[in-house]
Amino acid sequence: MTGRSIRSFSSVMARVQALQSRAVASFQSPQQPHGRLYSTHPPNAKLNLPTDYSTTPLLAHASQTALANPELPPEARNGTTKRMNLFQAVNDALSISLAEDESVMIFGEDVAFGGVFRCTGKLADTYGGDRVFNTPLTEQGIIGFAIGVAAEGMRPVAEIQFADYVYPAFDQLVNEAAKFRYRDGTCGRGVGGMTVRMPCGGVGHGALYHSQSPESLFTHIPGLRVIMPRSPLQAKGLLLAAIRSNDPCIFMEPKILYRAAVEQVPTVPYTLPLSKAEVLKEGTDVTIISYGQPLYKCMAAIREAEEKLGISVELIDLRTIYPWDKTTVFESVRKTGRCMVVHEAMVNAGVGAEIAAAIQEDPDTFFRMEAPVLRVAGWSIHTPLVYEAFNVPDVARIYDNITKILQY
Amino acid sequence: MKRIRLPTQRASTAQGRRVALQQPLLLSPAAACTAKTPALAPPARRHAGSLSQRPDAKHVSFPGAIKSAFSNTLRFEQPSTYPALATYRAVDQHGVAVDPSFVPDLADDAVVELYRDMLTVSIMDLIMFDAQRQGRLSFYMVSAGEEAVSVATASALEKEDVIFCQYREQGVFRQRGFTLADFMNQLFANRKDPGKGRNMPVHYGSKELNIHTISSPLATQLPQASGAAYALKIQRMQDPSIPPRVVAAYFGEGAASEGDFHAALNIAATRSCPVIFICRNNGYAISTPTLEQYRGDGIASRGLGYGIETIRVDGNDFWAVREATKKARELALQDGGKPVLIEAMTYRVSHHSTSDDSFAYRARVEVEDWKRRDNPIARLRKWMEAKGCWDEAKEKEARESIRREVLKAFSEAEREKKPPIRSMFEDIYEDLTPDLQEQMKALKRQIEQYPDEYDVGEFVEGAGSLGR
């Protein structure tokens, strides 16, 4: 009966379609949230085009490019690479951790079958259900459990299915994980072995509860290390560093990049430094600081600005959002005299505010400023479904702010 | 606030022992309500210090367990030695009444109407699932296998009752009067969507139907339901002309693992809130089967732990669900109000959502077996056919006309414009803050300066709504 309904419906649907002659998206894999993107680009757009991940200089499309990364250890630089997207790189890092360290365990909602974004695929089969397992549906339980596991000397990697759902675990993170070592004093125990992974950020149709980027709620908490990778190569190295780190880490994965961002990733285990920013592109007139997906939009805006305005822009990926790398940022801003911070989360009390305040507090940097620090970020609203394209920083808004900061 | 001072009261223990309370009780408003029927009223507030342990007493009089008999056997209770709570059925899978005391309380045409609601939901589900696959909308969730739980529970509630849903209860909306246009306007986030285009598809809400707007986080609605029920109770105490009302709160067995579930039941029990907790236990929380979700006897056993009257019903049995909810509503309004828990056993026939492919974690044959074995729509249809108020011709006509209606509402809603862009800034605060006004102006300037970079054509008023 059901099958008949679907078939007969299809023909009706075809008529409705013909009637309205609307473009119909192709069938996509049902593995991740997808479908109609409300943020499709306008027909005559020159700036607000979809990010072309296949050509962006932010991804290592060739093996040599990946291996030339000076932050890689020699064994990685002399090794091979493999093409991976972001979820495969995360999976690779998790797999390496499980293989190299028996104290690593991975758990969360639906992780056993591979997770809703496929980051934990095959791990339960390979490493066994004792160390890779589903938890009941309780974020406070997952994080409290992870804290307990870490307190007894192991290295849990807990997954929260969406960053939007981490809030029941806030008490455990803020009052427990962040304060564990501090309150234990000379007793010397801590939960630094813990890493909490969560997908974050907009995908075009996630609305109020599948789009949030709550990093600044965590960067306000001393004791937590907050990390957001921009690419597969970065994700593997930073996640391995987070898992090996002796501080509790919040590892936020921009979920729009899980499949979209593909690059060559060194196959051997390697770490990338935490709390160290990276200059992605050198420049002399403006410094743009960002992290995660907006970096790709910054890159597009910079290309346009450099071409149109004849200027040169420096782009910095903060990578670890707190404790953050002030040295790299200050050095850059002292050189360019102009600074703009770009993030997807709402502008109020966000990461941009922290960076702007730190810059103006540092006399050596402040005296070199030619313009106030600008913030390009989400408006002070929740993430609304059909208006997402007007909310998240886009290439045109970043470009416009570059022109503004130059005119000051 | 009215407070009632009573003379010294007595609290009774299970054995009829009476322990004098030392202090006059200052009753809370909740207790004041129960005080109207003193014979049934539980002690409003136990004062720990007032319970004295008599010498040689056979019962514990600790404040935390006043009815516990002393035992001289060191024994841990084994959950496995208790039989699983029974599952109530009124009608079996062949459509035959099995509860001898069951008398249908609805006229034939009323049953047919509710059956049509179930059918409507299931046909709409199929169409919208496929529409999502074709890229016509971003997301959808079907409720296949769970139509009876939604429609039958809703049918036993009053229009004035207040509802909190999880997200798979389109049958509740339908039964209470949500039209196909209402569904479609929300799904297409158009200008007629009361959610103003802000929410993901299936996040319906209706003030008129007393159903709060759906929120994606799980179980957050449950303590809210307890609070809402308490508000209804207090409002009726303060104004007896208001009809007695209950709150119904829906959730899945996965959500029952959240801390909020436990908080909700406990606070509802302690504050004697007239709330019906309705669990759709469909076997899966996305990929996680119940075996990895809990080890106790389902969700029902937890109600008992919190001192809540509880029933488990066959969720494929429309009549069992309706009868249980009718009785639950009566109970919830007794003794000044109290919570009730219904655990409806179902099976999630469909994928969790359009973002999920459930064959990655369960066998196709498992699903096919379930579909063949039992189905709430087929079961009620069998019952109706045996009763003589339904047949193949009516079924065919109903399916065809519903499909036509759904597609008509579909294409009308899809053609509508999106709400004004201004809506993205509104309702954050009661009034637009100076910050938000500035941001709205900045967005307007940006769109005007870069007209080719933004598509405002599908929104009412284009960029005009952002200010003159």
Features of the shown structure:
A: 408 residues; alpha/beta; 17 helices; B: 468 residues; five-stranded parallel β-sheet; globular
Describe the structure.
The complex is a heterodimer of chains A (408) and B (468). The longest helix of chain A has 19 residues. Chain A is globular, with a radius of gyration of 22 Å. In chain A, the strands form three sheets. Chain A has a seven-stranded mixed beta sheet, with helices on both faces. Chain A has a five-stranded mixed beta sheet with strand order 9-11-10-13-14, sandwiched between helices. A two-stranded antiparallel sheet of chain A has the order 1-8. Chain A has 408 residues and is of the alpha/beta class. Chain B has 468 residues and is of the alpha/beta class. The longest helix of chain B is centred in the N-terminal third of the chain and has 26 residues. At the A-B interface, helix 1, helix 6, helix 16 and helix 17 of A face helix 2, helix 13 and helix 14 of B.
Radius of gyration of chain B: 26 Å
Written as H for each helix and E for each strand, in order along the chain, the element string of chain B is EEEEHHHEHHHEHEEEHHEHEHHHH
Overall 3D form of chain A: globular
The percentage helix of chain B is: 25-40%
β-strand amount of chain B: 5-15%
The largest sheet of chain A has its strands arranged as: 3-2-4-5-7-6-12
Region (Disordered) (chain A): 24-51
Cofactor (chain A): thiamine diphosphate
Domain Transketolase-like pyrimidine-binding (chain A): 84-260
Enzyme class (chain A): oxidoreductase
